[in-house]
Amino acid sequence: MIIVTGASRGIGREIALCFGSTGNRVVVNYLSAEDEARKVVDEIAHRGGEAFSFCADIRKKDDVTAMVDETIRQWGTVDVLVNNAGLSRDNLLLRMSEKDWDDVLAVNLTGPFYC
After folding, report:
1. What's the CA gap between 94 and 79, in Å, rounded?
2. Which pTM value belongs to this model?
3. How many Cβ atoms from other residues are within 10 Å of residue 81's Cβ?
Protein backbone atom coordinates (compact mmCIF):
# COMPACT_ATOMS: atom_id res chain seq x y z
CA MET A 1 0.00 0.00 0.00
CA ILE A 2 1.75 3.05 -1.35
CA ILE A 3 0.86 6.73 -1.07
CA VAL A 4 2.40 8.98 -3.70
CA THR A 5 1.88 12.68 -3.09
CA GLY A 6 1.56 14.91 -6.11
CA ALA A 7 0.82 11.87 -8.26
CA SER A 8 -1.56 13.34 -10.84
CA ARG A 9 1.18 14.52 -13.21
CA GLY A 10 4.90 14.76 -13.82
CA ILE A 11 7.33 12.68 -11.80
CA GLY A 12 4.66 11.68 -9.27
CA ARG A 13 2.50 10.27 -12.05
CA GLU A 14 5.38 8.17 -13.33
CA ILE A 15 6.22 6.93 -9.85
CA ALA A 16 2.60 5.92 -9.25
CA LEU A 17 2.41 4.17 -12.64
CA CYS A 18 5.67 2.34 -11.97
CA PHE A 19 4.44 1.01 -8.64
CA GLY A 20 1.02 0.22 -10.08
CA SER A 21 2.41 -1.68 -13.04
CA THR A 22 4.06 -4.14 -10.66
CA GLY A 23 0.73 -4.98 -9.04
CA ASN A 24 0.94 -2.62 -6.08
CA ARG A 25 -1.92 -0.73 -4.51
CA VAL A 26 -1.37 2.98 -4.97
CA VAL A 27 -3.00 6.09 -3.56
CA VAL A 28 -2.81 8.81 -6.18
CA ASN A 29 -2.74 12.03 -4.16
CA TYR A 30 -3.62 15.27 -5.91
CA LEU A 31 -4.62 18.79 -5.01
CA SER A 32 -6.28 20.30 -8.06
CA ALA A 33 -5.84 17.95 -11.03
CA GLU A 34 -8.74 15.58 -10.39
CA ASP A 35 -9.17 14.49 -14.02
CA GLU A 36 -5.48 13.73 -14.36
CA ALA A 37 -5.53 11.77 -11.10
CA ARG A 38 -8.44 9.67 -12.37
CA LYS A 39 -6.49 8.92 -15.54
CA VAL A 40 -3.55 7.71 -13.44
CA VAL A 41 -5.88 5.45 -11.44
CA ASP A 42 -7.34 4.06 -14.66
CA GLU A 43 -3.89 3.44 -16.12
CA ILE A 44 -2.75 1.66 -12.97
CA ALA A 45 -5.81 -0.61 -13.17
CA HIS A 46 -5.08 -1.22 -16.85
CA ARG A 47 -1.54 -2.29 -15.90
CA GLY A 48 -2.77 -4.75 -13.28
CA GLY A 49 -2.49 -2.67 -10.14
CA GLU A 50 -5.10 -1.24 -7.85
CA ALA A 51 -5.46 2.44 -7.04
CA PHE A 52 -7.70 5.20 -5.85
CA SER A 53 -7.25 8.94 -5.99
CA PHE A 54 -7.45 11.19 -2.98
CA CYS A 55 -7.60 14.98 -2.91
CA ALA A 56 -5.50 16.19 0.00
CA ASP A 57 -3.62 19.41 0.51
CA ILE A 58 -0.48 18.13 2.20
CA ARG A 59 0.02 21.57 3.77
CA LYS A 60 -2.97 20.73 5.98
CA LYS A 61 -2.56 18.17 8.72
CA ASP A 62 -6.26 17.22 8.69
CA ASP A 63 -6.11 16.47 4.94
CA VAL A 64 -3.07 14.24 5.40
CA THR A 65 -4.71 12.46 8.33
CA ALA A 66 -7.85 11.85 6.25
CA MET A 67 -5.78 10.45 3.37
CA VAL A 68 -3.87 8.08 5.64
CA ASP A 69 -7.05 7.04 7.46
CA GLU A 70 -8.79 6.26 4.15
CA THR A 71 -5.81 4.25 2.95
CA ILE A 72 -5.82 2.21 6.15
CA ARG A 73 -9.60 1.80 5.97
CA GLN A 74 -9.39 0.43 2.43
CA TRP A 75 -6.15 -1.54 2.58
CA GLY A 76 -5.22 -1.96 6.23
CA THR A 77 -1.82 -0.28 6.19
CA VAL A 78 0.55 2.17 4.57
CA ASP A 79 3.78 0.44 3.58
CA VAL A 80 5.46 3.09 1.44
CA LEU A 81 5.22 6.86 1.29
CA VAL A 82 6.67 8.80 -1.62
CA ASN A 83 6.81 12.48 -0.67
CA ASN A 84 6.82 13.71 -4.25
CA ALA A 85 4.63 16.82 -4.10
CA GLY A 86 6.69 19.94 -4.46
CA LEU A 87 6.33 23.57 -5.33
CA SER A 88 8.70 25.99 -6.99
CA ARG A 89 8.28 29.73 -7.23
CA ASP A 90 11.25 30.58 -9.39
CA ASN A 91 12.18 34.14 -8.63
CA LEU A 92 14.97 36.12 -7.08
CA LEU A 93 14.64 36.09 -3.32
CA LEU A 94 14.40 39.88 -3.35
CA ARG A 95 11.36 39.65 -5.63
CA MET A 96 9.66 36.73 -3.93
CA SER A 97 6.51 37.62 -2.06
CA GLU A 98 5.99 36.45 1.48
CA LYS A 99 3.01 34.38 0.29
CA ASP A 100 5.14 32.59 -2.33
CA TRP A 101 7.80 31.92 0.32
CA ASP A 102 5.20 30.53 2.72
CA ASP A 103 3.65 28.34 0.00
CA VAL A 104 7.00 26.83 -0.99
CA LEU A 105 7.92 26.06 2.62
CA ALA A 106 4.49 24.65 3.38
CA VAL A 107 4.46 22.25 0.42
CA ASN A 108 8.14 21.29 0.41
CA LEU A 109 8.80 21.08 4.16
CA THR A 110 5.60 21.09 6.22
CA GLY A 111 3.78 18.71 3.86
CA PRO A 112 6.37 15.92 4.10
CA PHE A 113 6.49 16.45 7.87
CA TYR A 114 2.72 15.91 8.11
CA CYS A 115 2.90 12.91 5.80
Report:
1. 41
2. 0.89
3. 17
